[in-house]
Amino acid sequence: VHPNVSQGCQGGCATCSDYNGCLSCKPRLFFVLERIGMKQIGVCLSSCPSGYYGTRYPDINKCAKCKADCDTCFTRNFCTKCKSGFYLYSGKCLEKCPDGLEANNHTMECTSIVHCETSEWSPWSPCMKKGKTCGFKRGNEVRVKEIIQHPSARGNPCPAITESRKCIVQRKRCQKEGKGKKNREEKRKKSNKDESKETRQESKGRAARRQNRDQRENNSKTQPKKRKAPNKEQDLAPADTAH
């Protein structure tokens, strides 16, 4: 071993030197050179830093640098995130998205253009005026659509989703809410009163019928039984024969 190479290193290094830092790493760690001024220092990391990608070899695992426009990459030719001012598309960083795609400034990617989609028109609403369906002759009725898919920045915008047209109805008077409520309350009370009256009459009728039935039963028990009248023809028959 060279006199400047040490075996008792810190920070995951297998071998190191005082001047160049890590020279080799412990198993499963990645070796990367970090520049400090004019000097490069070797370090051992569990994962590669931003702008680098990891490669594993039998003798050493290294961090290699991504392309200049890549912020992170899977390999040198496949970026996973671009630096500011570039848009990611199929592993490449582009300044301008291809035709048929648009730049998404939120994700910094080239995405498909999305057009607006809406549902079919709803049925026309009842003819109304100032929120009421009575007390007028001419009003308006409305129908609407629902937005199913909002458009992207370069997509076709949504059309009008509300339509209104004039309408004519048979004029009718509006029933006042207070009066209507009062009438309903009076009808309910009258109905309950009629039901109570009918119930009382039925109860009285049943009581009277029960009283009459009991009276007849008592009379039949107290009155003596009537004797049978004699048969006149039978009584006179012997006398006629003797004569």
TrEMBL record:
Pfam families linked: Furin-like_2, TSP1_spondin
Listed Basic and acidic residues bias regions: 175-219
Coiled-coil region: none
GO molecular function: heparin binding; signaling receptor binding
Primary site of residence: secreted
Lineage: superkingdom: Eukaryota
InterPro entries: Furin_repeat, Growth_fac_rcpt_cys_sf, R-spondin, Rspo_Fu-CRD_dom, TSP1_rpt, TSP1_rpt_sf, TSP1_spondin_dom
Region span, Disordered: 174-243
PROSITE patterns, per database record: TSP1
Domain Spondin-like TSP1: start-end pairs: 116-170
GO cellular component term, pick one: extracellular region
Annotated function: Activator of the canonical Wnt signaling pathway by acting as a ligand for LGR4-6 receptors, which acts as a key regulator of angiogenesis. Upon binding to LGR4-6 (LGR4, LGR5 or LGR6), LGR4-6 associate with phosphorylated LRP6 and frizzled receptors that are activated by extracellular Wnt receptors, triggering the canonical Wnt signaling pathway to increase expression of target genes. Also regulates the canonical Wnt/beta-catenin-dependent pathway and non-canonical Wnt signaling by acting as an inhibitor of ZNRF3, an important regulator of the Wnt signaling pathway.
Protein name per its UniProtKB record: R-spondin-3
Organism listed in the record: Chloropsis cyanopogon
